[in-house]
Amino acid sequence: MSWKLRSSKFRHVYGSPARRERCYEGLRISRSAHEGEFCAVNPKFLAVVTDAACGGCFTVIRLDETGKIDPMIPKVIGHQGAVLDVKWNPFNDNVIASCSEDTSVRIWYIPDDGLEDNLSEPLMSLYGHHRRVTNVLWHPTAENILLSSAYDHKILVWNVNTGQAVTIITCHTDTIYSMAFNTDGSVLATTCKDRRIRVIDPRTGSVTREGQGHTGLKASKVLFLGTSKRLLTTGFNKLSKREFRIWEMDDLSRPLAHEDLDSASGAMFPFYDNDTHILFIAGKGDGNIRYYEIVTEKPYFYDLAEFKSSFPQRGLGFMPKRGLNTKRCEIFRFYKLHSGARGLCEPVSMIVPRRSDQFQEDIYPDTPGCRPSLSAEEWLGGYNRPPVLMSLRGHYNPSYTPKLHLNVPITKPMFTNGHDGMDATDNLRSPKTENELRSMVFRQEEEIRNLREELKSRDVRIRQLELELQNYKKREYPDNRDREESMEI
């Protein structure tokens, strides 16, 4: 029987961890049990979710500020609960979204030089969820469209330009584990604790496809495999073994392919590079990163290799393609958060070995850049367009300067503590749609809740002052006779 070795330009891809001086050391990485990545990266900044004595915060570091991190480095401290997820705006490297256990989603602006003091005032606070918000996701082609999911089993689609929830997706019956857009953002896929995979129209919230997912109870993740109209999910089977499956988007009745991995307990984070068709899978608590090459025909994937490390990962972020070093033939870069007391964030570059340091056109096709192809209003109006592509040849200096077009000055938050910054005439406007009515009700409920908490705290303070006054009288006037004598004097 003849045996033929399959040829692939990515067969020898290897992982190259950065030297110690090129890492970020001394971070108080979050110890939350939430199955999140806790890290987000763009060509300017690194954001890491960190622990705090009270409330929630995350640290933003310029990429060139490597080495030992000052323990007193300024942080983003505006949330009242633990931060669960952060995501950079794909069209503005200075804007980041965060979500928290305090039920809010907040939009922040980071100056080019980084933070000089703790940042507590966001550009905008978005209220609409009733329980902790676990995930945020920016639209891949439309500017200022943001999604958020929470423990209230809802997904809200936000128009960040106006601060309004334009769509409320209520088709889920349990906790939403993950959500992902396709390449042009016209379709949304989700995984849920009810073990169902759903393909959803994000504008209307209607479910177009639904199928049985992984049979295990632990967290599962989903992503689109580029433009192939296929999905990949990671999860657990009924024997608690980790696995991944490939699905046809239009037929979720059975997977096209699946692969059993191991019996570890940590959730798995999938990452897909549409330019090279390489799938990376990293498990929480693992020290290794597996990678596969995805193909269009059976068997639909091929095992490439594995990056191994003795240090387990707490979370992972990845650099967008426009921030990679093409002279090293770097096709992907992870930012690995180490578990334990080291507080280390370690860059890990995935390299294609080539002898020449010239630009390699075969591994660097045109890739999505930082220019949106649609405005928020165009996307809400039903338009779909593919991403605007850019070349990675040479140093990338974009001529397009992205801006966050808000209805408020960029230095002033639109919402503070649940009270919006609109004037009285805006509050008297009648809602035109059901979603606007729901958004108005959400804001009013949040305002009522904050007022009740404020009254409650004032009552407590009044009681404390009364007790202090009584104690003062007892100390100064032990009995009435001494009190009368002191008054005569």
Overview of this structure, please?
This protein has 489 residues and is mainly β. 12% of the residues lie in helices and 36% in strands. It is built from four helices and 34 strands. The strands form nine sheets. Strands 1, 2, 6, 28, 29 and 30 form a six-stranded mixed β-sheet that branches. The chain starts with 13 loop residues before the first strand and ends with a helix. Residues 396-401, 408-429 and 483-489 have low confidence and may be disordered.
List the helices and strands and how they pair.
Layout: E1 14-17, E2 24-25, E3 39-41, E4 45-50, E5 56-62, E6 67-68, E7 75-79, E8 83-88, E9 95-100, E10 104-109, E11 124-127, E12 133-138, E13 145-150, E14 155-159, E15 164-169, E16 176-181, E17 188-192, E18 196-200, E19 207-212, E20 221-224, E21 230-236, E22 242-248, E23 257-260, E24 268-273, E25 278-283, E26 289-294, E27 301-307, E28 313-318, E29 330-338, E30 344-351, E31 367-368, H1 376-380, E32 389-390, E33 415-416, E34 419-420, H2 424-427, H3 434-476, H4 480-488
